[in-house]
Structure formats: structure tokens, C-alpha cells
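Sample 1 of the test manifest.
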Amino acid sequence: MNNILLSINITLMYSAPLILAALGGIISERSGVVNIGLEGMMTIGALVGAVIAYYTQNPWLGFICAGLAGCALAFLHAIASIKFKADQTISGLAMNFIGPGLSLFICKALFGGTNTSPTVTNKIPKILSWMQNPNKNIWTSNLNVDSTILIALLLTFAMWYFLYKTKLGLRVISVGENPKAAATLGINVHKVRYFCVLASGFLAGIGGASCSLAIISVFSPTVISGKGFIALAAVIFGKWTPQGALGACLLFGFAQSLVVLLGGNESIIPSQFLSMLPYILTIIVLVLFVGKSVGPKASGEPF
Amino acid sequence: MKKNLVIPILAISMLFVGCGNNSTAQSNSNTTSQVSEQAQTNNQTENKKVDFSNFSTAMVSDIGGINDKSFNQNSYDGFKRLNQDTGAKISYKESQQLSDYKVHFDALRDENVNLIWGIGYLLSSDVVNAAAMNPDQLYGIIDTDLDGKVPNNVIAVDFEDQEAAFLAGYIAANVTKTDKVGFIGGIPGRVISRFEYGYKAGVDYAARELNKKIGIETKYINSFVDDSMGKASALAMYNQGADIIYHASGNAGQGVIEAAKELNKLAIGVDMDQSYLAPKNVLTSTVKRTGDAVYDASYKTASGEHLGGQVLRYGLAKHGVSLADPNENTFNLMPKELYEKATKDIEEMIVSGKIKVPKDEKAYEKFVSEL
Amino acid sequence: MSIKISSLLKKSTTAIFISILLGFLVGGIILALSGFNPIQSYGELFKGVFSKPRYIVQTIIIATPVILTGISVAFAFKTGLFNIGAEGQFMMGAIAASFIGYKIDLPPIIHPIACLLGAMIFAGLYAVFVGWLKAKFGIHEVITSIMLNWIALYFNNYYVTLPSLKKPNSEGVYEVLDSARINILYNVKANQENILAFRDKIAELKGNVPIVNGVEKPTLFMKLLDTVQDIVFRTDINYGIFIAVAVAIIVGFILNKTTLGYSLKGVGINKYAAEAAGINVKKQIIMSMLISGAIAGLAGGIYITGMSPNRIITLSLHENYGFNGLSVALIANNNPIACIFSGLLFGALKYGGNAMQSQLGVPTEIINIVIGTIIFFIGMRLIFTIIADKLEKGENSNE
């Protein structure tokens, strides 16, 4: 039982930033703009989140500002892709250089040359933090996950509802599938795409903040380390649907929890192979259950 | 910046305040700082301010940059102090890929540097190759003894990490309330093994003293940067009953310490005083004074000593490694007598050779069998 | 007059040049904002790359692996595949080359060829797995590639632990044997005696330096000898660049002049049309990944046999040879020959960036921002075509 609860805890911890960033990838690509710059946007979000939360002692302010920082970076991507009809892959790639570079630069400028931000004493609360002593028994201790996973789950549902049940959401989808037809129907394709790319930046930003404000409570240059690309994989795995990406991220997080639980003092498998488990499992599940993933038709083409 | 001066000043002030007089050591830290600063300059410059302004030294850092709040930064701080004290010229080159090391070492040849440092054992083969190619250039390498085969123009600086780890283990075994402690390592290897087996030996030694059995959980997370995995592994260990975890996992350790904070358990930091990450949950840290070693060796070289071809070993004896100095929380987390016993009595036994701290599996098994 | 400008703008090379210029300009603004003199900084960058023959050689050496990973990614793009797995294929190629280079003893010229071939095959197969999953199950290559990149990283760290390969007292395996190296004139620096012997030989060839008016004035020939000695001893100069250029030409040839290339590109442009035309799309996908992976693996092989540290070492994170290859390919508009130049540009920015850092203290992250800015503007080069069209229209409507 202990192990099951622990597994849930680790799964949710790992998945939260991935889900948020993946949602960001989905909303952008659904509107037709490829966004491989999730990694850079997560990094700047992680930094800004940690910095603001440190100075204001308010983690939620940090969280929101992280989203806005991601937005700012996404704005560059949006202008390039939408207004200047840039190659969206290149533009996204540039974000992956600019984001981490800017983050390090700002951190060093603010904190006297060090590349790790000072510890955030007031980080994002856990869902059971209102309790007197949540660490009392294994149930409350393990199920006491960060609020970020709750936010991620809520946003997943919100995005699902938005995309499939609201007018604006269906517009987004139509813009991503056939922008010319959408334009003839009177939809302002550019405006929709701007909105989506900015939202994408915001989500990636808060995804990054959930690393530096929940998983640990500092920004360091290695705090993201590839999560943006895992999120990208989750978008495709989930066939560009929020619920699919959620499943992919949870699967990945679950596999990481297995790595922890199966590893240990004596193991027949070399530990490096055990560390490969999440990646191998993802491929296996892909083959057995997911199959083909086709993106939005107009994704990647400037309009 | 001031923080970096406090630790060496405190350390040296403790030397001068005397062994038994510790009750005043901490409160005197501010007043004795002037005394000790004088003592420091006395100690190292023999009543005369030295001018090494025509001596230059440079370092090639490992991946992580000179501001990594750890290894590289520590070494560069030593450089900065050298520059402040003696006017010696300092510079650095940051590496981003493994192939950068050789390129940087070569570029430094154009800059007329007296002593070129490689910071980290990953640079050892490039230092050796550069030394062979440039017999008239002096090099230094941190964190390896080059297996004893040190070229004449290389100064090898090695740290007896296992000695400080032993103290950490000793303290952990005495503080644990569940009789179960843990170790989390980054990527398995020679250097991390020193931490692992030194720690385990310390735990076993204390367990024998206390006449009880203390379990040690070990986990390697296969990364020095994956803080999520560090945190997850620590969560698992704490869940399984351990209440103190010592980590030697670089940046991933930020996750380990975070887990300790969240579950209100204890962690032990590495390479520098990591209590800033979780003041109430970091029991202590093992500190590695690469900066002091770099300062020492550079200073001696600048004064004309020829250290090439030697292995300079920094252990507890030379204060190259040690437990971090206590802060305002330390004695809430462990009894003062324990800290003192570890840093005096046990330390002395290690320095004098009465306790031979193992640094790999074979030596550890021997150690355990002889306990 | 403006018709000429518009036609000039339409040329893609102009667009790239303007983009690079804009990138440098905005990068200069960033440098200024961070407190560095942009002109001085770029001066150091330029000097750091061009002021000595040895620097140029170093730049070429650094650029070689990313030129090849760039060609790998570019080729894949041309055939409709996003090979973001070049990173993992590079590592697998490096591992294969390391194994063959150390464990198997072969005579000099054959050894490096075996290493590089082994690298290409091993990495090619690694990539074929991605292609096969796509062909058979329709699984998107980006996901599998990203997963395989991480699997390769952990495999890299596992490989280092193998007892017969691990170099004691280090976190890596043994270097490849001397016979496997692709460095030019490696023998003269293989050991201490050879180094001294070569030095003596050069000194002998140089003879006495003539003294004119009391000052030493070495002849051009002497300076040349010094430069050669400089380059051979101080850099990892290797045949890799020639291999990279040859590969670029071959790949360009395959793509543009062979039926294989045509069918691969056809699948890339419209795979349904290609299928209708009778092309076995599944086979092409696998073939395409095989070639792309092999090229990335070749990059890894050249890295191991030609560049320090000449061995596999534990890694916490990817070294980014593959990801930088992605940048190189995109900047080159997926043209294999252009990859040579964009790879050189990348190498120059990296190597010159080192000079900026050591001479002026410009931190590495600023250099990365500048590189990102240049890439960003290059991505926007299409805008010049649009401006050109508008100019043309304006000119036409004025008549």
C-alpha cells in the first residue's frame, strides 16, 4: 500500500510540469503554429517564477508572472511565425537558445553572479497543507501533492471543454485545420493564432514555474533539462488532445515512479537500463495502443 | 560575497580560539574575524604583503560554469581571493562540451599563463595530454591523483572526500531516530564511491559504538541534474523508514533536500554548506574546499615552490574537506557534543590514522570485517 | 532600379545574409544592454576565428560534427521526416566507433575506416528502428526519436561501466587506439619521442633565421613551417572536414540526381501522391531514416576518432551535437551543401564566442542569446521574399 501511494505521489509530481507544458504545445499547434520552443519558455518561466516568489514571498504571484514571462517569449515566436511568416520550427528553436540564455543572465544579474536563485521560502502550497500535520500517516503524506498537479488537471479539463465545446475553441481547431476556409467564414486567423501562441507561452511558463516553485524551490540551470521535449512528445502521443497528453504525461510520470520503486540496493538489471524504463515504456504503449498521430493539417504553414 | 569569506575566517578563527573553548567560538566570530584576518595574513604571508602581480593563473571549468554554486564556483572563489591578496592575475574559461577542454587548454597557451588549472576529474586526460605536449607549461588538476602517475609539470590535487563523509555518517548514525539512514548518489563512479563508502563506514562505526544495528539504503539516480528523480528517490527512502539522507548527486541533490523539507526529515548536503536550501532540514554538509586548495597551490607556485609531479592530498588534516560550520539551526538538529565529538575526536582519529576510512567497496568490506 | 533590388532580395542567399546581419545587430544591442561594447565584442569574435591560421583550423574542427548532423537532419527533412533523434544517433555512432577503435586491433588506414563504417551502421540501425515504427505502425518519428535520445544517453553511461573498457581512475572508457585516429599527421604527436623528432625536423628544415638590420626576419617558408607545426601539435586537425564535404556533395547528388533521391523527396512532398505513383512509401521511410541516422552516426564516429577526448565519458545531459545539427540544417534551408556553411557559421560563433568570453568576460549565456537571435532572424528570411514581391508589385503598378 505504501508503495502504491508513493507511486501516485511520484507520478503526479513528475507529470505536473509536463502536463502544463504539453497543454501549451497543444493549444499552439491546434491553431496551426508549431511550437518546439516549449523548453525555452519553461526555463524563463521557472526563473521568473522563482525570482518573483523570492522577492514578494507570494508563490502565486510568482506563478502568474512565470506564465507572463512565457507569454513574452512566445510573443517573439508569435510575431515571427504569424506576422513575418517565419519558419516556425526555426523560430521555436531560437526560443530554446534565448530562453535559457536570458534566464541565466537575469539570475546572475539579480543575485550577484550566481546561477542558482536564492531559496523560495514560500513555495506553492501542497493540497493538504491546511492540515495540522500532513506527514502523520502514509495516506495524507503521500497524497499531499503540490497544487500544481491540481491546476494541471483543471486546465486539462478546461482546455478540453474550450476546444470541443466552445465556439472560440472550434474556431481554433478550424484555423489549424484549414485557415483559408476559416478566413472565408470571417474568422480572423491571425488574431486566433496570436491568442493561442500566447496562451501556449503562458502554459509553458507556469509549467516551468511548477518545477522551480513546487518540485524544488530554487531556479537552477538544470531545473528543466529536457522536460520541454518530453512535453512535445506527449502532445504528439496524445494526438494533440488535452486528455491524450494528460494520459501520456501520467504514463511517463508513472514509469519514473517505477524506476524509483524498482531500483535499489540489489538489482539484476543494471541501473542505467532501469533508468531507460520510462522511455522504453512510452514506445511500447505507443505501439500497442496509440498508433498513428496526425497533427492539425495546417500546422507549420504560415497564413 | 561576504558569505564566502566567513567560512574560511571562522575555520581559521577556530584554530586560534583553541580546542576546548568552543562556547565562545561562534559568538566571537565577528570579533575574532579581525584577529583571524590578521592571523590569516600572518599565517600565509609572514608579516609582509606579497606581490604576485606578474603571476597569472587560469582555470578551465567543468560543464556547469564558474557560478554553479559548487565545485567550479568554489575554485574560482579561491582564485578571487588569490587576486585580492596578492594581485595575481586570474581568468577562467567555461566549458560546455567535453571537447571544449582541449580547445580551452590550447587557447590558454596563447595567454601566457603561469599555472593552468583543470577543475574536475573529467579534465584529467586533457590535462595530461596538454602537459605532454607542452613540457614547459605548468598545469594543475583538481579531484584526481592521476593514479599516482603525475607528469612533472602537473600538480594533482586530490580530496579525501571519504573522510568528511565518514564524519557525516557518524553524525547521521547518532542522530537517526529510526535507525535507518540513506545515501543517494548521482552517476556511479570512483569519486562518488568515496562519498558512499566513507559515509557507510562512518555509520557502521557509530553503530558499533552505540551497539545497535543501523540500516543504510543506497540509491544511484544516474544523473547529476535530474532533481525530480533525486526528490522521488528521497521520498521513497524516507517512506521506507530512513530519516536522514546524505546525497552526493550534484544539482539533483536540490530535489533530495526538498524532499527532506517537505517530509520534515533530515538531509546532509555535499561540496558546500547546503543549509541555505532548507535551513531546518539540512543536518550538516560535507564541504570540499577546492578554492583553498587552488589558492594554496597557486600561492606556493607563485612563491617559487615546484609542486609539479606531486599529488597534494587534501583531507581532514589539511582542512581541505570537513563538515560545514554550524549555523543557528545546527544544534537544534543535533547535540552540540555530537558535533564536537565528530569534528574533534573522530577527526583526530582519522587524521592520525587510527581510523582508516575506506573509499571503495573492497576497502569498505575490509573495514567492516575489522570493526 | 527597384526591380533589381527586388530580384536581389528574392535570392535566398541575400535573405540569409541580411538575416545574419540583423541577428548580429540585435545581438549587439543585447551585448550593449548587458554592459559590453558590441563592436569590441564582435571584434574579438572575428579575431578569435580569423586572426591566426590555427584559429581557422580550430573553427573547422569544431564545426565538422555539426555539419554532419546538420546534413543528417536536412536529409531527413527533405524526405518528410523530422529527425530530432540525430542526438541519439550521434551518441550511438560514437559508442560504436569507440568500441571498434579500442577493442579491435586493425592496421592504420583500415582501422579508422572500420570505426566510421561501424558508427554509420550502428547509428543507422538505431534510426531504422524509428523509421520502422513509423512505417509499420504509423508512429510519429518525433516521439520515438526523443525517447531514443534519452535511451542513448543512459546506454552511453552503461557502456562506460563495462569492465574491459573502463579506464581506471576515470569516468570514461579508454581512448581509441592510435591506429584508429583520423587526425592529420597523428604519428608525429603520438608520443614524446615523435613529438621531439618532428620538432627537430621542422627546426632542421627551417634552418637559420636570417637577420636583417639586427632583427630576425623569418622567410615565408619558415613562417609556413611554424604554422604547420603549430596546427599539428595544438589542434585536433583531422580528415573529418573532407569527409563532411564529401558527404554533403554525395547527399546533394543523391537527392537531386538519382531516382532514389527523387522518390525520397517525393514521399517528403506528398506521400499520398508518391504512393499513387507506385513508390513503396514504407520502404522509403526506413531507407531515409537509415541514411539520416548513418550520417549522424558518422558525425559521432569522426568526433571519437578525431577530436579530444577520443573516448566515451559519462554524461548527465546531452552534448547537443544533434540539436545543434537541427539548427544548422534549418539555417541552411535543408540544403546539404549549405549545411557546410551554416555548420561553419555555428562553429565560428561557438569558437569565437570563447574568445569573447576569455578576452572581455562576456558570459556564455549572452553568447547563446546572440546565437539564438541570429537563428531567429534567419527563420524570418521569407519576409524578404515578401518585401521583394511587394516592391515588384509597386514597381509594376507605377509603370
